[in-house]
Amino acid sequence: MLEKPTNEDLQRIAAANGFAISEDETGAFARSIEKSLASYGVIEELSGESTPHLNRDKGRRPTAAENKLGAWAWTCSIRTATDGRLAGKKIAIKDNISVAGLPLLNGSEMLEGYVAQTDATVVTRILAAGGEIVGKAVSENLCFSGGSHTSYPGPVLNPIDPTRMAGGSSSGNASLLAANECDIAIGGDQGGSVRIPGSWSGVIGLKPTWGLVPYTGAFPIEPSLDHLGPMAHTVEDIALTLDVIAGRDGLDARQINTPFNLNPMRNRSTRRNAVFGSASLKKVSAGKACQTQLSTTRYGRQPPTSADSVQPSRKCQFRTMSTASTSGRVSPPKARGTS
Question: What positions carry a catalytic annotation?
Answer without folding.
Answer: 94, 169, 193
